[in-house]
Amino acid sequence: MTEQRGDVAGAVAVLRSAVLAEVKRIFVGSDSTVELLLVALLAEGHVLIEGVPGLAKTTLAKALADALGVSFKRIQFTPDLLPADITGSYIFDVPSQSFVLRRGPIFAHVVLADEVNRASGKTQSALLEAMQERQVTLEGNVSELDRPFMVIATENPIDMEGVYPLPEAERDRFLLCVRLTYPAALHEVDMLKRHQVDPGRARAVANGEAITAAIGRRSGARARRRRNSTLRHAPRSGDAGGARGSARGVAAGGAGCGEGGQGACGAGGTRVCNGRRCQGAHCSALESSDAARG
């Protein structure tokens, strides 16, 4: 168990170091922001980024996807955006004389929902099934999304003019809410040094298969830890509830004595049923048999 946990931690540490080094070539900011996005990805969660315009939220999401070696799609949410613009729809194909599915931008590994609160609640709801079930249902047909899958949504917490608040059901889909602020003085100096220098795109240091495997190993290790923890605590809960009892407090047929509840004999020989001293016939008979046995 310890070796397996060490292998998972080692693989995650290698992935973190490689991705962080590559993203920092493109994105100037705190390392913790990139690490939080990686945490959400490995936990199969989604992230809501709050910050004023100009803080490189889109640059961060795109650089992360490029470094991970996965597909990336950006959706600019506007008041006139429709759900079909996100999920896609069936269109009539003239050559084949049939309806074919034209997939929307939701079919990507990393989806950036830019200014998500500028679209109506109806449009925002197109994200709910994809974020929770990792699938899209169109015309009764279910299409599975590729793994890994993560939605990175952004919103401006200051500008409240013409926006739609996120429903609670949608906020619940986000594992983390990251608040970006203006960069520190050290980062501003770094930005000035990089001014008019094109860093290009982030190089891929991983791929979708490797990330999916890391997620699987982490999920397996977590399931084993949860199972072992449950097994360790199960006897304790049994002791707390019934270890102090005695078989003498239960009738032969399995039903307890007292007023229709389970009966047990408490510590010191005091028989208790439903929290009170038992006066039932079964316990009286047991007392008589105990006296005769003594």
Can you characterise this structure?
With 294 residues, this protein is an alpha/beta fold. It has 2 domains: 2-226, Rossmann fold (3-Layer(aba) Sandwich); 245-293, no CATH class. 41% of the residues lie in helices and 18% in strands. It has 10 helices and 12 strands. It has helices spanning 2-23, 31-42, 57-68, 84-87, 121-124, 128-133, 168-171, 185-193, 208-243, 281-293; strands spanning 47-50, 72-76, 88-93, 98-103, 110-114, 135-138, 141-144, 150-155, 176-179, 263-265, 271-273, 276-277. A 5-stranded parallel β-sheet has the order 2-5-8-1-9, with helices on one face. It starts with a helix and ends with a helix. The relative contact order is 0.14.
CATH fold topology of the largest domain: Rossmann fold
What is the helix content? 40-55%
What is the mean predicted local confidence, pLDDT? 78
Q: Note the run of SSEs as H and E.
A: HHEHEHEEEHHEEEHEHHEEEH
Text of the CATH class of the largest domain? Alpha Beta
| Poorly predicted segments | 240-289
CATH 2nd-level architecture of the largest domain:
3-Layer(aba) Sandwich
State the separation between the terminal residues, measured CA to CA: 53 Å
Q: Could you say which overall geometry the principal axes of the C-alpha atoms support?
A: globular
Per DSSP, the total helix count is 10
Largest sheet: 5 strands, parallel
DSSP strand tally: 12
Approximate strand percentage: 15-25%
- The value of Rg in angstroms is 29 Å
Domains (count): 2
Largest sheet: spatial strand order: 2-5-8-1-9
The SS-based structural class is alpha/beta
